[in-house]
Amino acid sequence: MAVRIITDGACDLETEFLKQHDVTCIPFYVSFDGETYKKEKVEIGVRDFYQKMKDEPGVFPRTSLPAVNDYIDAIEPLLKEGDEVICICFTSHLSGAYNAALNAKMILEEDYPDARLSIINSLCATVTQASFVMEAVQMREAGMPYEEIVSRLEDMKEEAKIFFTIESLDYLIHGGRIGKMVGLAGSALKLKPLIVLDKGEVTSGGIARSRKKSIAKVIDLMTDFFTKGGHKINDYKINVGFGYDEEEGKAFLEKVKQKAKELGYEEEIPLLQIGATIAVHTGPGALGIGVVPKCKE
Q: Domain end: 156, 184, 213, which one?
C-alpha cells in the first residue's frame, strides 16, 4: 500500500517533476474555436498555446475542466492496487474540477467501499497549487501517513496567496471576471491591475499606471504580507510565475529573490510558466508570486 498523489493541470508543475515524484496530473482542455478541445501539455504545449495567443490577439481561448471519467480513469487503477489516494484540485471558486473529482469519488466508492480516497479543494491555482503539491510530495517522501498528510494540507490551504499583475484587461473582460464598463474604462486609461488570489477567490490588489510600476507593486504586496501581516517568511514556500515572456519572467524572479533575501528568506525560489488554465483569463502577460505555508514539523 502506498500514498499516491493526483492533481490537475492547473498546478503548472513541470512534467519532469511530476514523473520524478510519481504524481499523476489530469490535464484541462483548451480550445481556440470553442469546438475542438485539446488536452493541455498532451495535445498542445504551453509554449504553442501562448504563441497562438500572440499570433491571434483577437481570438480568446477557453478551457474545459477534466471530465468525471478522466478522474475515474486516473484513480481507479490506484484503488485496485490498494493504494491510498490524495487528489489535489484547482480552487472550486474558479473551476468545477473539484466537483468533478467528488463525483468520481462517489462513483468509485460504489465498487471500492473501503477506498482511502481524499479529494482536496486546494483553494489554490498555478504557482500556489504547485507549492501545495510539492508540500504533499515532501510529506509523503518523509514517510508521513495518509491521514496526517490530508489533515495538514487542509490546515495549510487557507493561508495560500498569489500576488500578480497582467498586461491587458482584455482577457478578464472577455471572461467576465470584471465588469465590462469598469474594464473598458481601465483599458482606455491603460491601467495595469494588481490581483490577489486569496482563499481561492480573485480580489483586487490595486492598480498601477505602467507595467514597471505594477511589477514593483506586486513585490510590495508580497513584502507587506510578511512585514505587516505578521507572517514569518521562512514558514512559507515561494514560487514565481510568468506567462509568455520567459526573459521578463527571469528578470522578475531576480527582483523577487533580492527582496526575499532582504526579508531573510533562505530557500531557492522556483520559476514556473503559468499554463493555459489561468492564461485564458489573464492573457500572455501575467507575472505573479505565490506563497504557501510549509508543512509544520
A: 156
